Amino acid sequence: MKIEIDEEVLSKTTECKKGFSCLSSKTRDICKVRSKLESAGAEMILFCEPNNDKHCDYKKPFGDFCICECPTRKEIYNRYGI
């Protein structure tokens, strides 16, 4: 599946050290979303299972899971449900 994300969202993802591998069908490096939290006037929060031991500047530990703050990852979830 080809994933397309608006340039505006990509430009907000300034700390990606993985070369946007989440967008490639061959090298898709993406954490699995376990749940999301949305509330009026607040930004959506994704709770994920880390998919590997690689460091990610957008991954924040939260108990057994992590909170993903990556603008591109959030858009992938919003658009494609993955």
Report on this structure.
- The protein has 2 helices and 4 strands.
- The protein has one domain (7-80).
- The protein is of the alpha+beta class and 82 residues long.
- The model has no long low-confidence stretch (mean pLDDT 87).
- The chain has helices at residues 7-12, 71-80, and strands at residues 32-37, 45-49, 59-62, 65-68.
- The protein has a 4-stranded antiparallel sheet with strand order 1-2-4-3, covered by helices on one side.
- The longest helix is centred in the last third of the chain and has 10 residues, at 71-80.
Placed side by side, the strands forming the largest sheet appear as: 1-2-4-3
How helix-rich are the residues, as a percent range? Answer: 10-25%
Question: Using DSSP, what is the number of strands?
Answer: 4
Instruction: Decide which structural class fits the backbone.
Output: alpha+beta
Q: What Rg do the Cα atoms give? A: 12 Å
N- to C-terminal separation? 11 Å
Mean pLDDT: 87
- Overall body shape: globular
- Unreliable residue stretches: none
- What percent of residues are in strands? 15-25%
- Helical stretch count? 2
Q: Write the H/E string, N to C.
A: HEEEEH
Question: Main sheet, how many strands, which sense, barrel?
Answer: 4 strands, antiparallel
What's the structural domain tally?
1
